[in-house]
Amino acid sequence: MTDGEPTTGPTPETEAPRESFATPCAEASRAAAPAAPGAEAAQDGSRAADGSGAPRGKGFDLARLLAERGAERYELHAKHLNHQLPRMLHTIGFDRVYERAEGAYFWDSEGNDYLDMLAGFGVMGLGRHHPVVRKALHDVLDASLADLTRFDCQPLPGLLAEKLLAHSPHLDRVFFGNSGTEAVETALKFARYATGKPRVLYCSHAFHGLTTGSLSVNGESGFRDGFAPLLPDTALPLGDLAALERELKRGDVAALIVEPIQGKGVHESPPGYLRAAQELLHRHKALLIADEVQTGLGRTGDFYAYQHDEGVEPDLVCVAKALSGGYVPVGATLGKEWIFKKVYSSMDRVLVHSASFGSNAQAMAAGLAVLSVMEDEGVVANARATGDLLRTRLAALIDRYELLADVRGRGLMIGIEFGRPSSLKLRSRWTMLQAARKGLFAQMVVVPLLQKHRILTQVSGDHLEVIKLIPPLTITEREVDRFVAAFTAVMDDAHGGGGGLMWDFGRTLVKQAVANR
Fold it and tell me: How does DSSP assign 419-449, residue by residue?
């Protein structure tokens, strides 16, 4: 691998001693639950559990399996999973082998650290392997709860719902599923049933998930192509109240679903739009659905991104990603009392909407631990302050670099947009890239950030010259310094008179883009 320039600022392993995340979890894992009859024999992989003494298989040993087969990771994926993913990673030089992770960092087998500015597309809000979340999961496993019986009411779902609703005082009830797209599917179903209307409006360039219902309100044609027919839907420009009112007058609209800040391109809804849209929707007996799957739980410097717009109280709110703590998938749809009571209107309809793994104990424990950490450690306030610092530092570079067009966002959801330069030499290179495929320059920035500076980022969407930064909400000024120094070095290279390695890589990307046409 290429080491490149030394890391700017202290690294977790050298200058800043790291808290050991393993200690409390190791303690918890040693607290074994009482063994069931025959359990000792079952755990001994060499003998059968029935006491017969007959030899059986080796048993399952995760550490041994990873030691024996871990090096095959890319080959296994290419053979048995999405074969294009390893191909893409090889092409852009992202085929790293990460050995472990903690907080906002990864480490490879050689001990090199990598700063994570992607957070698993926002899943790792608290970073990786937070000790409180780890301990909660060890504790819930060791408790041997009677989970998912389907015909009882366990305490953890109610406790997590109570805690979520405390941050959402205008909402009353929660449905727990397993992912963001499932949270959206729930909101779409509930809105259509509660209003008795079929059509859902969404905003151009929106992303709400990839299952059939959420795909119906996905604003990117590349995801939708070939999967029709979808649900009745209509796309509107983000912020266009006149277009919204036109559609509402047709009388068949159940809801408008909107990301307060769109993940694709990091575009914020205009000030006052959500409040005005809410009033229009309610006037026409339609609902406002806020998709906070990526923007919620502190990402934008408030608990929800819709809270930036005063007076907005969505009828349904979708959350997921960071609620999982990065461990157990969980999605939640929060809504008003009357909506839930209409959907679940009688005992005959008690299971009219459910999820096989919804409300499972591990997911609920993870969610409770995440919300506890957010409160105890001031995570939302840190996201606001650190995000403001990072955005300000980056925006100050716009006048310095003609390829840097804009820096925008809220909290720790930041978009860095690149644009057409003014100087002739840079403009000719830019034009070459744009002719091959829009978005190549942003990829040219992402690659040296990883290969030379060991910082993981990614473009904000296909055919976009935008990098989106969504790091763990726990990063500090140390990580801001490291990213800004690395980004400055990459921009210096991009603006250098001799072209440099970055533009050489650009020519490789152009050849690849042309070959894929």
Answer: ---SSHHHHHHHHHHHHH-TTHHHHHHHHHH
- The DSSP secondary-structure symbol of 251 reads S
| Residue 32: DSSP 8-state | P
pTM above 0.90, yes or no: no
Q: Which helix (H) or strand (E) holds 268?
A: strand 267-268
Contact residues for 14 (Cβ-Cβ < 8 A; gap 6+): none
- Beta bridge mates, 456: 116
For residue 510, the model assigns a pLDDT of 66
State how far the Cα of 268 lies from the Cα of 327, in Å rounded to an integer: 29
Span 238-255, average pLDDT: 95
Q: Terminus-to-terminus CA distance in the chain, angstroms? A: 30
Confidence at residue 147, expressed as pLDDT on a 0 to 100 scale: 94
Instruction: Write out the two tokens for 1.
Output: 């691998």
394 class by beta-carbon count within 10 Å (0-12 exposed, 13-18 middle, 19+ buried): buried
CB-side neighbour CA atoms (13 Å) of 213: 17
In whole angstroms, give the CA distance from residue 427 to residue 58. Answer: 63
pLDDT tens track for 41-95: 444 444 444 555 555 667 899 999 999 999 999 999 999 999 999 998 888 888 8
Beta-carbon contacts of residue 5 (< 8 Å; ≥ 6 apart)? 452, 453, 486, 489
Nearest-10 crossing angle of helices 379-395, 361-376: 70
Both structure tokens of 307: 């809270």
Which residues, other chains included, contact 132 with Cβ-Cβ below 8 Å and sequence gap of 6+?
Answer: 369, 372, 373
Answer yes or no: are the C-beta atoms of 119 and 106 closer than 8 Å: no
Give me the residues paired with residue 175 across strands. 333
Question: Which pair of tokens denotes residue 72?
Answer: 């095959």
A 10 A CB-CB count for 331 gives 27
- Taking a C-beta distance cutoff of 8 angstroms, is the pair 344, 173 a contact? no
CA 114, CA 128: separation in Å to the nearest integer? Answer: 13
The predicted pLDDT at position 9 comes to 39
Assess contact for 275 and 311: CB atoms under 8 A.
Answer: yes
What are 216-235's pLDDT values in tens digits? 888 777 788 888 877 777 88
Q: Where are the alpha helices (DSSP H) in 99-171?
A: 119-122, 131-142, 155-166
